[in-house]
C-alpha cells in the first residue's frame, strides 16, 4: 500500500506495476519515468506548472557537480539526528530530487521517502536518477497524503504550506526547513545588478511548531567555467527577473566567486 491517497475520494492508493488505484476504482497511470500525476486543479492541460525544463536541467547539472554537497550532507545529518529508523519522509517540492536522493542513499533502507512537486519536468529528471523514490505531480498546498501519515517533511527552497505540513505530520513529527541566508549568492547578484540586495529572511516562528535545532552553513563557490556560471544563474529566479542586457553580463563571464550560505531549521510538531 502506498502512502499516496486518491485526490478524488481521499482513499489510500495501491501501487501496481503501471498505475495507482484506490478501492473506489479511481486509477492514475504512471508515466514512463515512474511518477504519477495527482494534480486535480489543472485549469488547462496546456498550462505549464512549476519550474520549466531549462531551469530543472540547469539545477540538476549544477547540483550534480557537488557544489552544494556540503548542504546535502548537513541535511542528512539532521535527518539522522532527529528521525527514527523506518521514518516516512515527504520531500515537499522535491524538484529533480538531488536532496531526497541524497537522504535516501544516506538512510539506506532505514527510511521511506516520497517526493511531490508541481513540475512534471522536475519529476522526469528525478525518475532518471533511478533512486526508487515514489513521486507525484501535486501541489504542496494540497498534498496527496492522509492526516498524520508522515514522520517528517522536508521543505528545501520551496514555498511554505504550513497548514498542510501540520496536517500530514504525525504528532511529534518534524519539519526540516532549508532557506538561503541574507548573503546567499550575493556575488552572483553583484555581477547582475547595479545595486545588489540582501535576501529577506522569513520569520523563524511557525505556528504549531517548536524550533528544536538550527544550523548555519557558509561556503564559497569558485566557478571557473561559463557553463557552471550559466547553470547557477538559470536555476535561480534571477534569470527570469532580468532582461537581455543583464543576462548578457553573466554570459560573458568565465569565472565567478560567490557566497553560498544556508540555514537548516528543524521544527517539532506540537502535541
Can you put this structure into words, describing what you see?
With 271 residues, this protein is of the alpha/beta class. The protein contains eight helices and eleven strands. The strands form two sheets. Strands 4-7-6-5-8-9-11-10 form an eight-stranded mixed sheet, sandwiched between helices. The chain has a three-stranded antiparallel sheet with strand order 1-2-3, with no helix packed on it.
List the helices and strands and how they pair.
Elements: E1 13-15, E2 19-22, E3 27-29, E4 36-37, H1 53-64, H2 69-82, E5 87-92, H3 98-107, E6 111-117, H4 120-128, E7 135-137, E8 150-156, H5 162-168, E9 169-180, H6 186-192, E10 209-223, H7 226-234, H8 244-251, E11 256-269
Parallel strand pairs: 4-7, 5-6, 5-8, 6-7, 8-9
Antiparallel strand pairs: 1-2, 2-3, 9-11, 10-11
Q: How do the helices and strands follow one another from N- to C-terminus?
A: EEEEHHEHEHEEHEHEHHE
Structural category: alpha/beta
Lateral strand order in the biggest sheet: 4-7-6-5-8-9-11-10
**Biggest beta-sheet profile:** 8 strands, mixed
* Poorly predicted parts: none
Number of helices: 8
Share of helix among residues? Answer: 25-40%
Distance between the termini: 27 Å
Please state roughly what percent of the residues sit in beta strands, choosing from under 5%, 5-15%, 15-25%, 25-35%, 35-45% or over 45%.
Answer: 25-35%
Rg over C-alpha atoms, rounded to the nearest angstrom: 19 Å
Give the overall pLDDT as a whole number.
94
